[in-house]
Amino acid sequence: MSSGMREFVFWQDALSLHQSAFLRNLATCNGTKVTLVVWEDINARRKAWGWPRPDFGRTRVFIKPSPEIQEDLLRCERDRVQVFSGPRGHPFVNAALRRNLGSSGFIGMMSEAHDKRGLKGGLRFLRSVWDERCLGNRVDMILAIGREAVAWYVGCGYPVDKIVPFGYFVESPELEDVDRPPDDEGNRFFEMVFVGELAPWKGWDLLLRALCGLTGPKWLLHVIGDGVDKKRALALCRQLGLSGRVRFHGILPNKEVLYNISRSDLLVLPSRWDGWGAVINEALMCGVPVVCSDRCGAKDLLDGGVRGEVVPSNSIAALREALQRRASRGRPDPTARRMIRTWAQCISGTAAANYFLAVTEALRCGGPKPVPPWLRIEP
Q1: pLDDT (tens digit, 9 = 90+) per residue, 287-301?
Q2: CATH 1.20.1250.20 fits domain 185-343
């Protein structure tokens, strides 16, 4: 890419808190112009979850633009890079991608891995292989959300040199007094938090059954979220005798979610499937370690130590052992929390923007692709 103006146009389904920090910081880089094109504002589901309208800063935002504006944005310009969420996402984005395939411009795709389990998973894979036959020679860059996505697109036949490990990036929390206070009567429990939809794929039932067998230190679990399984979750708590130790908070505004995470000692995300799991980013940026399943894309952010560990999906025994280890060690001290927060600077919006610029520079001008900052081996 030349040293002059660099223009990036991102095509997505809706405004998202998982994109705002990245795009806002990208738009502040010298000589960079960033445009975001979406079909809708924050969708109803995210509004119901208490998401505020994201701050995209200097990014130009178009919501459901006219066909004329779309064609103008898709026009091949020198140093313009198009990045589409896809290739099987929202129809609006898919249509724009396919209209752009005939141009000579630089085309990127941003995508998570797909669930490959069962018959449906096999069909998804075959569909992705077909997409590669149609798109592989024309797409110049694939921003693969997590290592599982990298493996998926390699397996589908996309050229390895076009595939780039990527992630989701959340806003840095603005919280005061994030380190836990000294021991007192009100903080004698080891406090865990689950944040997510109460639905089968989130594995909330695995967590409750794993907690049932914990011994030793007293603990509490805070459940933030709602969903189709809420009544089942309450019933299972009663059945397992956990009602006094599990507190259901329902849906909270995003700022309150972050506050509750920051006051916890461990975030647990035992998902049966999770394309990424951005709540893991949020916990680490708050200085809170994580235990998650190996079906979460954001498992890439954990180190098996201070930042947390990964357990096999659907294994209640493995999840229980991990929780037992963490609870037996007690609450993370202020030093450990500061270590986690310091490391988490590598998943900030600024770090993501700088990495993205280095990636596009390497793919357009040649040279080795940079290592993602969150995957670099620490000295």
Answers
A1: 999 999 999 999 999
A2: no
